[in-house]
Amino acid sequence: MNKTYDVAVIGGGPAGLAAAIKTADKGLKTVVIEAMNRLGGIPIQCIHTGFGLHYFKEDLTGPEFVYRFIDKVMDRDIDLLLETYVEEIINESMMSKKIKIISPKGSWIIESKTIIYAAGARERHRYEIGIPGFNVAGVYTAGEAQAMMDLYGIMPGKKILIIGSGDVGLIMARRFVLEGAEVVGVVEILGYPSGLTRNIVQCLQDFGIPLLLRHTVTEIKANNGRVSSAIISEVDESLNPTPGTEKEVKCDTIIIAAGLRPRTKLLKKMGVLIDPRTRGPIVNDYLESISVPGVFIAGNALVINDYVDYAVEQGETAAESVHEYIENKGVLSAEWRKVIPGSNILFVVPHYVSGRKDVVLYSRVSRPLENTYFQIGGIGKKIPLIKIMPSTMLRIVLRKTELSKYIGDIVVEAVEK
Amino acid sequence: MKSYVEKRVICIICPRGCEIRVRLVDGKIISVEGYSCPMGKKYAEQEVCSPKRVLMTIVRCENGDLPVVSVKTSGPVPKDKLLEISRYLAGIKVKPPIRIGDVIIRNVLDLGVDIVATRPCMPVENKYSDQK
Ligand SMILES: Cc1cc2nc3c(=O)[nH]c(=O)nc-3n(C[C@H](O)[C@H](O)[C@H](O)COP(=O)(O)OP(=O)(O)OC[C@H]3O[C@@H](n4cnc5c(N)ncnc54)[C@H](O)[C@@H]3O)c2cc1C
Ligand code: SF4
Predict the structure, then answer these.
(1) What is the mean pLDDT of chain A?
(2) N- or C-end of chain A: fewer Cβ atoms within 10 A?
(3) Residue whose CA is closest, atom 1 of ligand 2?
């Protein structure tokens, strides 16, 4: 393995696959490094529909969606390293990165000019959401339970309580019922569900599954080392459990569907700066880290995407950027303009724009809002929003011509009418 | 006396989730409001008369690279049949190779739709290769 790649794509999920297809089509020597023994990432185990509405204008299941990319990767001259885990990335110079990998065949180093980092996200676990107690059998994250059931055909339990009303929690509730389990409820600490209304309807209401808003699990009880019940309490305005509201709910399994966090351990180690708002890397509009040149980030490793289509779009942007980077020996320096999240905005990605090309902004509001304008300071762009929740990612395209109308920082705000 | 009802339906066709109001007189639809596209109108009419869903689930696959293959119904089925189909499929076993789009069961439970594969499953000597 003594060759130097133009680009090493880390992670063979939708973002990584879309990136690799594009870099290979541009004639760049490409390798995809994937830790699992198959390509595809998360969608392989998401057997529900809801994939590809934007990209293919079709409603596909996760595997149907991602196999369209896998097939294209297979048709191209792309090196694949499966069951290969990236342990470390070392930034030697602008045009040289060393990647330490481990696989069943041993551990060695791969060299590449650039990196597209598309390692996806990790799930938040129970201790991160403050559910104390001993580590007992029967507590799984939603992703673990999904893999057990829908990849390996093993039921995680019979009587299930789900914590978290995001789309992942809702979709899993329906899957459990269809597989013959009983879902005793979905517990949500906030006063509103964080998943899409369509999923409240077709996953909970269709099957009569109760949704407990403003509730949290304060204790997990076990019997012989396995979950036997959960204590559920109401929470007050500041999300603290209200004493005296405790209820015991019998269940043998607890599913934590408490959201995702970009996987950034490897990035941090190599000096990539992290945005405390997205918990992902700070990037420019080439999706390149602002602190480590030649490292591009796409998909859920960059920002948690509601839609796979956006992860794919970021993968393709990163691929374009790598092409330019190699042609020009670096991203051409620019007067980087800062993108600033203003009032009611949780985050905006990317963090800097060059003004040299159209840019797609991904953003979320910080609280549920009605009758608002999403506005971009200086540029005079105003987008009316009838109703917007923090759980809905906004995608806004800023044209190069719009960007050139104004010089200075770009302030993004959501203002009520 | 005419019976007059208004039903609220949340459209599940796309993530926008429009709230659609359907007015019925004596069980007949007289007006549909609040949809943003024709698909939504059709869905709302369907939903108040006979709600339908596409079922997505798994069936067992013997000696495949994964022990289950994911499937869906080729079209929507009556909502109250979802569990019945799912229970029926729990007893089905298939063999690899299976490709995306392969028909697993024709005209399942005489509902006029097929069960089709949504994930490939290839034969493997060494079963569950990722558990080695
Ligand atoms: C339960 C669930 C349901 C969803 N439903 C929908 C839906 O209905 N519609 C929709 O549009 N989107 C949906 N999504 C979102 C969609 O799955 C994601 O947006 C998409 O998978 C992100 O792609 P990715 O390539 O960034 O990450 P992933 O799909 O997570 O892929 C990352 C890959 O990187 C690999 N990897 C990680 N670390 C390393 C390492 N160190 N070395 C080598 N490889 C590594 C992983 O094994 C994985 O294969 C859902 C997500 C979840 C969790
Ligand atoms: S009516 Fe049209 S736009 Fe509205 S949710 Fe249904 S499909 Fe989407």
Answers:
(1) 94
(2) C
(3) B40
